[in-house]
Write a structure and sequence with these properties.
Arc Repressor Mutant, subunit A, 47% helix, 10 helices, Jelly Rolls, alpha+beta, 309 residues, seven-stranded mixed sheet, 2 domains, globular
Amino acid sequence: MIAQPNFYPFEIRTEEMASWDLSAKVFNFFEIIQILDGKGERHFNDIKLPYQSGQTFIYTPQDCRSFTIVEPTRFLFIRFTDVLFANCESADQRERLSAWMKSLEYLFLNHNKAINELVRTSADCNLVQGVMAAIAAEASNPQLHSRSNIQHLLQVLLHIFARNILPDTNPLQPVFKDEPLINRLTGYIRKHIYNADQLRIEDLATFAGLSKNYIGEYFSKRTGVSIRQYILEYRLNLVKIKLQYSDLTVSEIAHELDFSDESHLSNLFKKYFLVSPTAFRKKLTEGQSQQIANLSGKSKFSGLHLTAS
């Protein structure tokens, strides 16, 4: 398995292929792939699933992917890194970056790639196609504010994916009314992970329609962990993502995720991952620097590049 780095914040390309000549690779960036025409089989992380015209897939960093093409296929590739959303100077930009990060967190922790339909409704399928077409049009003719427009459009796209990956946790929502209770309950926790006041036992019990005395037993029987443990582990995984894909300090991350202070977060993080948050981020930075040092030649994939200015 080959790791293929990418050092441009954004690139887009449409390409028609009769065969997939690239070996399976791990890419250190996000990639959205839309199948414009054709059919075949997609491979990722040792899982194989069919693909067909009209489908859209998203791959996060470290996903290994490739394709077996049965009928000539026209792909639309959109690749981007968090650098595209860097250099936030205004409050509005910082707010947009925060929204972007939360969409990425949803995708990281909730996207089940063994399900072949990323977008679950025909209305959202049409919306995704329109937004991706708008991104392609903006990128094909860069003008003033093109970078900002692409940022906004990508955020819209990620929000659409996120709401399909993590559906509305309202038990009366008709589209998902048959979703098992435990799925709706864990979905409620994920949705409100930044609001500790909504994750109290009495709130969870009210949402689930169970008694305060029984909900803990119900949850642990079906997940293998307690509610408190589930919430803690989910938060710690969010910490890992923020350490890797944001410039927030450990203290800022602790505040955002409702840890009592930086020391509290650091102790828990080290207990679970056997390394401190600071050391974890340092190792990531050193690894990325080493990839850049080892890079030689030009990437075969050289679509439109928008530099981070």
